[in-house]
Amino acid sequence: MMPNSFRALHRAPQRSILSAVVVALTATLAACGGGDSGGYTPLAVSQTAERRELPQALMTRASINYSPYRTAASASDLGSEVITPANVLQDLRLVQAAGFGTIRLFTSSIFSETVLTVIRDNNLDLKVYLGTYPNPVNSAADETANQVELDAAIRLAKAFPDTVLAVSVGNETMVEWSTHKIPPETMGGYLRKVRAAITQPVTTNDNWLFWASVPKVIAETVDFAAVHVYPFLDTFYNATKYDWRQKQVAEPQRAQAMIDATLAEAKLQFNDARKGLQKLNLGSMPMLIGETGWAAVDTAGGPTLSFRAHPVNQKLYFDGLQSWVAEGRRDTQGPKAIFYFQAFDEPWKQGDDGWGLFNAQRQARYTVQGLGTCGVTWACEAGSYTSADAVKWVAPTLNPAVTASRYTLFASTATAGEQLATGLRWDPFVATGYADSSTAPLSSDGGNYLLVTPNPADFGWGLFLYSGTGVTANLSNFANGRLNFSVRSDGYPGKIEVAITTDNEDREGQEAFLQIAPGEMGYCNTNAWCDVSIPIASFLAANPKLDLRYVNFRFTIADRYSFTGKPLNLTGLPPLRIDNIHWTR
To answer: Which CATH architecture has domain 4-389?
Structure first.
């Protein structure tokens, strides 16, 4: 477990990281995106009889997003992972056994030809919604790479006409929060180029927020709309977007009520996307859900999804989607397909992993286990569940307020009248080392101290003292007090950070980090012990939403480079010695 700020720093835009692989490819510039020449179709196809109908197979089969990466541990490893036909065949047979008949691929120039060839050579009854992955253009080389990607999609759509049902150009490239934006005018040119060269229907995949205000240059170019809805994930980024907690529902029914509320929000988002098309008199355009899903694991390093992420909750949402798509296929305004996100976990996504119906070891999760036989159809992930095991929001437990004048977290010498914190543990982020030490130099109180050896990630490091079981301390009596500790460092550069984290009534973790330079609040880096004393009021000023009745992370020491003014990827930091950590009233 870690504070949200570390999760956010560690979490890359994982569904956009393929850019690092695609941009590495080069070829001769074939055309410039955004123009109306070079074979692009200039007409507004979606307002004419030219609009291509969705194939029946796309509107009758269960659908899922698929990527074959298994071993890459980070984005930088993707290019070196070898995608073998044997592994792809294993994957696709598992996907088929789970009842899926259509897969969506994200890119055309990396592994899609292998996937399509495996389907053909093994006579698999699978269809493909082929993706192509252009990236922002900052140079001629970027545009060249994009044209290579588009040309690959065209070639594959022509080479596998019976398998490729439709083609999508771009993935979340135009929504306002995209980290890899492409202007709609440029994307429109890419769409026209691909559409002019193939016979399949063409679109772009993007978030519902984009489709809700879709520009004409896109809406009048595509044959259908592919909409992403992630209300489950929205609960982290906008906790008040909808009532996901369902506090008013009795606990035994609350988990299902939370799922129902999330499905209702997904439908609202989809309908908002429909309204965006209606504004352009395109309300009859077919629509599908290109991505939606539910994490089975609250993965460290990503958005905090406690009370939500769990294998049983994943199944409840998945089952609800099956009902929705059945309704949508009967309703002209509903989704004609729902591509579930996703088939398999991918370790390279790190904090954004854990969404697969199968884990990275190709073990079936609870959601699909009942569709086959464990040990026969597939290996099954460990754990036995029933619907009663679904997690749900629960109110925080308010413990009695600490009345002692001192609340001690770490010290070798007892102090009269103190209350010693119990049940706590240190938890480093990444691999920062820490250990009790009584070696020279002696601690500030003559006993042990905590030796902290930074082993930073690219953005920094951190070490937290907290309750691993979630038990909070009621330190409301310390609002006018101080957080104190002794520190010794031999020239640690610049600022360090000290933080506390609390829960609150809504179970939204709140944190406050303070950046402290040598000479401030008693901090020094002169290879001598110095006593740091921080007013609790300073933390409250940094984040007024802190609730001292529910303190979980009692003490955090860290260095997030973007906040302390250090360059990213800084290494070679000297150790810090920490001692005598305590709160005083």
So the answer is: Alpha-Beta Barrel (3.20)
